[in-house]
# Entry
Amino acid sequence: MKIQIMGAGALGSLFGALLLKAGFDVVFVARGEQLKALQSRGLEVSGLMEEHFDVTAVSEPVDADLVFLTVKAYDTENAARQLEKVRFRAICSLQNGVGNEDILARHFDNVVGGVTTYGANLREPGHVIYAGEGMTLLGNFKGSGAEDFELVLREAGVNVEVVEDIERRIWEKACINAVINPITAVCRVRNGKIVEVPELWDVARRIAGECREVMSRMGYDVDVERAAKDVAVRTSMNRSSMLQDIEKGRRTEIEFINGAFVRKAREFGIDATYNEIMVKLVRGIELGVD
Ligand SMILES: NC(=O)C1=CN([C@@H]2O[C@H](COP(=O)(O)OP(=O)(O)OC[C@H]3O[C@@H](n4cnc5c(N)ncnc54)[C@H](OP(=O)(O)O)[C@@H]3O)[C@@H](O)[C@H]2O)C=CC1
Ligand SMILES: CC(C)(CO)C(=O)C(=O)O
# Structure
């Protein structure tokens, strides 16, 4: 069984390492310094696992059985175009944000949606920190394949479950990210501050309210305010992924998180002013208004 990790950054390196440890044939598709490091020094894993792996790392996709897509959401279209040139049975996104599976479904027959709460950070090229064990939910988005991905992940010791409502789960995770990520990124605070600082909680509640209304119009009854509060408290010391991106001067996934709620709200003709403001503020920082 050959498994390809398309976008061997933090999350892809972690999942690839877990699969390698279980004995799978894993190919890492990477670029830049990460590609050079993987090719010359291999992959170092620290944190919840301490191990070094010699790896196969390439700059262009190759034929494989299964593909995990772990690029940032804004790179999905480009990655899909590269993957169109090779053969594989099914592709599974483990990304955050909404819309990745729709992009993949325009290119491929068997698309599996994924949501994971595992945590990984790149300390330096070729060195990933396994920061947190979580849960991974998978579901067929188009065609089939979820059970194949479930099987390999389970064999690799990953907590995984196949669900029937993967689209809902993807939107649910996006709700949490929509509330926590932009506020932490704009105010440069850890997740816990969102509930500790009344002014920030006031904004968080308003974003959550808009997300809840969008979800409700989609037929999903979700108490977004409560869910976001729970996660912010549980992860109070975390620096959100969006805050980390901003701190590193990198592009964020805001268009695929709050931007997705703004677009859905427009479709339904409802208000999403707070989400829209967060998109614009984060874009402003990305563009260098900082
Ligand atoms: N890290 C985590 O703990 C979690 C992350 N996620 C989600 O997973 C996704 C990936 O996150 P993360 O791993 O943190 O991000 P990273 O930026 O660390 O990893 C993405 C990697 O993909 C590379 N890449 C992008 N396009 C290509 C390409 N065409 N060919 C080869 N390499 C490519 C990037 O290179 P470059 O750096 O040059 O852009 C980067 O190394 C995101 O959607 C994120 O929200 C979800 C749950 C947890
Ligand atoms: C849940 C949360 C907010 C944890 O930090 C996250 O997923 C992120 O940072 O992107």
Remarks:
- The first strand starts at residue 2 and ends at 6.
- Residues 166-187 form the longest helix (22 residues).
